[in-house]
Fold:
Amino acid sequence: MKDYILQMKNITKLFPGVKALSDVTFNVMRGEIHALVGENGAGKSTLMKILSGVYPKGEYVGEMIVDGQKQEYGSIKDSEKAGIAIIYQELGLVNTMTVCENIFLGNEIVKNGKIDWDTQNKKSIELLKMLHLNESPNTVVEQLGTGKQQLIEIAKALNKNVKILILDEPTSSLTEADSENLLELLRQLKASGITCIYISHKLNEVLEISDTITVLRDGQTIVTKPTSDMNETSLITYMVGRNMDECYPKAKHEAGEVIFEVKDWTVPKKKNPGQYMLNHVNFKVRRGEIVGVAGLVGAGRTEFAMSLFGALGEKATEGEIYLNGQKRKPFKNPREAINSGVMYLSEDRKRYGLVLSSDLRTNITMASLDKISRMGVIDLDQETEKVGKGIKELNVKTPSMLQLAKNLSGGNQQKVVIIKALLTEPAILFLDEPTRGIDVGAKYEIYQLMNMLVDQGISIVMISSELPEVISMSDRVYVMSEGKMQAELDSEADNICQEKILYYAAGGK
Ligand SMILES: Nc1ncnc2c1ncn2[C@@H]1O[C@H](COP(=O)(O)OP(=O)(O)OP(=O)(O)O)[C@@H](O)[C@H]1O
Ligand SMILES: [Mg+2]
Structure:
């Protein structure tokens, strides 16, 4: 008999127009790290939302057994009581509260009708120590980086005596170092007997950390196997249902003239005069090329793109901009940039890219209404046609263009913001972490799309922390370090490799 801590049997979950899960079986052994993988929209998050009571009994069909006991949760609270904790990619912390307040949020220790701060503080310190986090419980959460915030989420879960810890894409926005830390911590938790369910699109991490892997595809269980019996190729084949010979469709691009250039682009730090967020940056883009921008988190890559895009306001910046060879004033705001053919796609799609409560059609045409309107009136036929075409070309998984954005899986949301950007008909498209949280198959589609756009004469600037992607897809690569352009590398002449990029990213000359 196998010692299962969790058995999910014949789970089926329907949404209007979507069969998210169909007769899924998912068995997890006590004390293991069990990876759950699959393409965008395969049903991973939905399955975990059932396990954690987000979708309570009555909203799904099937049976759940935890620790030998049949379970039916009415709410998240019930699953927490049973020792299940879920950590989402989007963190659930309250930024303005302290570490300690967050850890005990909704779970406060009360003595004589008052919160027992002393005990809470003591327990927080213990938890932080266990996580090797050298912070005070009184630190306000927003002062911590994403990696540390992630750990606070875990502290919160551990504080509730978690038996099964679910991590849904925990490392997708972490740096390499923070991801490594997190993986190390998971090993530690495993050693202390906690069972972990790990969802990730980073297959190398999955293969490194997990004991067992379950693959979902189109809402069905495809396979559950010991990790030792899997490799990247077999895993991808299970995921996408076909062989994928290559991950990057590298194409040769004929770059044309320089269409965009900045000289001495400088953004002083608002709060610390004399210091720079961006320091005399020189940068150029040719017609029809893919320019990669690499660097460590915090190097200023996003600030660079946002400042060019007018998102910081013209007053925040100094330096010269040349568009099509003509010197011009910095963009006052994003609208002006878009009208001039410069589009920026944020890395934070939930905050800047999507209105989650609106439908796909509204989201997609939001930035390009002038292109589908005549005398201020939207041409609905044209809108429907353009949106439909985008959804089809990028293979967005949705029952209709009237689906609300929040109901799409993470990867499909990313495709939607890309369609939105393309409809503005940009000449230069800045893509900030365009494949974050996206499965291998969809990544390939996005790369192909990039090549196609470039062939049409669009220039793409791709900011990315995934070095293999930068190296494989770019014609030229800029490496940023602490607000400066540290190096410019040519994919033909410079033999770009990860080591080289990391050397410059760390400030090497
Ligand atoms: N609240 C909802 N309403 C309608 N459809 C939904 C809802 N939540 C999820 N879906 C649909 O169910 C399917 C499974 O989605 P789910 O979020 O579980 O995928 P996932 O495997 O987690 O994908 P990703 O890797 O992109 O996060 C998708 O087709 C998605 O659009
Ligand atoms: Mg998901």
